[in-house]
Fold:
Amino acid sequence: MELKARAPGKIILAGEHAVVHGSTAVAASVNLYTYVTLRFPTSDENDDSLKIQLKDMDLEFSWPIGRLEEGLPGFTSPVSSTPKSCLPESLKLIAALVEEKNIPEAKIGLAAGISAFLWLYVCIHGYKSATVIVTSELPLGSGLGSSAAICVALSATFLALSNSVNLDLSHQGWLSFSESELELVNKWAFEGEKIIHGKPSGIDNTVSTYGNMIKFRLGELTRLESTVPLKMLITNTKVGRNTKALVAGVAERTNRHPDAMASVFTAVDFISKELAELIQSPAADDLAITEKEEKLEELMEMNQGLLQSMGVSHASIETVLRTTLKYKLASKLTGAGGGGCVLTLLPTLLSHTVVDKVMAELETCGFQCLIAEIGGKGLEICFEGSS
Ligand code: PMV
Structure:
């Protein structure tokens, strides 16, 4: 039996950083996916191991089942329907199993993701042989939710081939889960994210699972339905960033200038709320869509200005802003800033020539450009051969 899942990445349309201080933020899925294929060996294959292949990096890690039983004991009767947190004792055992694989130093960031994989797999399937193949269209560690997408896709394939999910095995093409199944996948994915990030907010895995857009404030998530398709140019500056340090920098600035920063956060709150209203409001024709896009561009520019005043922009981000502005396009950083990715709205009536020119100019600066549709479907699965 072979099964594939795809889970999208995310962008933050408005409200990053300010959300940490109680403002509203809006996040959306992007149609850039992480794919996970799960295959159980047939009885005549005689394969007694658990393997994960990271195709994009040409890496494979494998553990004999006996080594898993010995190194991570106690999973003889896995409980797939109840998401389980990985306690520090188990995490230590998993870390030892991952360490044995001598992950190349340059790729050491993968270790936490591999640990999440081992935890999710063993909790859901125990000591069963399998091969898991991962590929992704999402750049790693750039704020597009690559780790959440992998946790969602892993959880989905593992659950789909367990007893806790009921699927139509004869379905052709991509198939969605039911609401209750999505909820289960989301909870497991969150457990994986906890292994990778320590204390994630749950936004990335929720957007990846359900797709579309969500509004969030003080840990409360509201799902939104966008009425018009939005297209964004995502520019990956390839400048590595440290989310924790950037969040701490904003907190320090807030301590130094509490009243001024409170006003900044309040302004962001209004921007996010207006943006959420805007994307849900109907737009009947091209004129209405253009008006909506113009308002959205203004809100993005205002949010970017406020992110600059929080001190989280970066020379590379400013280069993207200057370049896109030459073509009268509005941009803002997305996620933690300090590098990472920048969003540029591509209005519906914008010519392909302009898009090609701006992309060419950004690429000569050494940036990576991706075009993505915003607010599309979340997790989907497909039985191999039918996609
Ligand atoms: O780096 P990202 O894309 O995961 O976004 C971080 C968003 C912040 O608002 C800066 C931090 C947070 O936890 O909300």
In short: The mean pLDDT is 93. The radius of gyration is 21 Å. The first strand starts at residue 2 and ends at 14.
